[in-house]
Amino acid sequence: ASCMQHRLVVRDASSLQIRQLYTCLDQIQYIEWSSDSLFILCAMYKRGIVQVWSLEQPDWHCKIDEGSAGLVASCWSPDGRHILNTTEFHLRITVWSLCTKSVSYIKYPKACQQGVAFTKDGRYMAVAERRDCKDFISIFVCSNWQLLRHFDTETQDLFGIEWAPNGCVLAAWDTCLEYKVLLYSLDGRLLSSYRAYEWPLGVKSIAWSPSSQFLAIGSFDEKVRILNHVTWKKITELDHPATIASKKTIVYKEVEKSPTVETERLSFPPTRALASSLFSTQSKYDISQVPVSLQYVKPVADRANPKVGVGMLAFSADNCFLATKNDNIPNAVWIWDIRKLKLSVVLEQLCTVQCFQWDPCQPRLAVCTGSSRVYLWSPAGCVVVQVPGEGDFQIMSLSWHSSGDSMVLLSKDNFCVCYLEREEV
C-alpha cells in the first residue's frame, strides 16, 4: 500500500497491479496493515481522524474521530480488530474495537521513544506511564484489555520498553543521561538491573536476538554490550575502532568506476540510453588489505543528540550475526559473528549509511546509503545492485517482504520493488 495526498493505493505485491483505490478525508500521514492484511489504517493526525478500509469488502469503511482530544499516534493491536489512538499531550490511549464498537481508555501514557510494546504472540501489551513524577509500567491482556500488572520502575526518565521475542522478559531502559537497563518478568518482578558506567551518556539503542538468548545494548561510548538470558550478566563488549587491524576481519570497500564505452558505438547526438550510461558511475566492492582506517567524524560537542555511539543494531533471523552502525563512523556497517563473538565483516560505503535490514528468512543484509544503489551482504559475499530508471532515485529506507523474495526501496517521493530470484535447491 502507498499513499499520495488524500489517496490510498493498494497494489498486488508480485505484479504491482492496482487492486484498490481509496480516497480519504484529508492528507494521509500514516498507514498500517492489520496483522491478517484484511484491513488498512490511514491516520490523519492534523484532523484527529483515522479511517479504516477493508480489502474484502471495498464498500465497508470505518471512521474514528478523536475530536478535540487530537491525535499524535495510531496503531493496530496484534489481533487486527482493535485500534490504539494516542491523544495529544499523551493524555490517554483510546482502544477502539471494530467488532463490538466498544471503547477502552488507558490513562497517563508516557511520551517517550517506545512507550507501547506487544508480545510477539499478541497476548500481552506493556505501556510506559508517567504519573506523580514517577515512571510506571502497566501490562494488559490484549483479549479483554484488563490490567494484569502495574508496577513502578527504578528509572529517572523511562525512555523505552521492548519485550523479548518469547514474551517472558520485558526490557526497560532509562534516558541517555542515566545508564540503566532493567529486566522485568511478566508478573512485574525485577529480574536484573544492568549499568555499564555512571556519568557519561548511556544507552542509545537495544535489540533482542530472535531466540531471546541475547540482549544487545548500543551505547554512546561506541561499544555494544551483550547480556545473556541465564544470569543477565555481560558476556562480551564489541568495540568499534576507527582502524581495523585484525587479519580475520574482511573489509569490503565500495569504489566507484566509470563505465567504458566503445568508441565505435558513439554517435552524435548520442541516444538517450547511451548518454545516461556515459555520465553515470557504477560501483563495486573491493577487499581492502588490513590495517584499514575508516572515515571518523568528530561529533559536535555543544549540540543536542550528538552523532556519536551505536545508534543502529539488528540480529539476523538465524541468531548467527549482529549488524551495527557506529554514528562516529557513518559510512561503515559492522557485522559480528555471534557464535564466535568476533568481528567478521566491515562494509565501508562511499556515503552515509541510512538504513539496513536483515532478510527475515536467511542471513542476508540489505543496506542503503541515500544513493540509487542497494547493497546486499551474505556469508557468501556482497554485491552492489544499481536501481534501473531515469532520474536520481535516492534510496533512504528499505523493507523486506516477509517471504524474503522481494523488498521495497523508498526515496523521498517514489518507491520501487526489488525482486530477488531464489536458487533452486
Written description of the protein model:
It contains 1 helix and 38 strands. It folds into 3 domains: about 1-105, YVTN repeat-like/Quinoprotein amine dehydrogenase (Methylamine Dehydrogenase, Chain H, 7 Propeller); about 110-240, YVTN repeat-like/Quinoprotein amine dehydrogenase (Methylamine Dehydrogenase, Chain H), CATH 2.130.10; about 245-260 and about 270-425, Lipocalin (Beta Barrel), CATH 2.40.128. It has one helix at about 270-280, and strands at about 1-5, 5-10, 20-25, 30-35, 40-45, 50-55, 60-65, 75, 80-85, 90-95, 105, 115-120, 125-130, 135-140, 145-150, 160-165, 170-175, 180-185, 190-195, 205-210, 215-220, 225-230, 235-240, 245, 250-255, 280-290, 290-295, 310-315, 320-325, 330-335, 340-350, 355-360, 365-370, 375-380, 380-385, 395-400, 405-410, 415-420. With about 425 residues, the chain is an all-beta fold. Helices cover about 0% and strands about 50% of the residues. A 6-stranded mixed beta sheet has the order 26-25-31-30-29-28, with no helix packed on it. Strands 4-5-6-7 form a 4-stranded antiparallel beta sheet, with no helix packed on it.
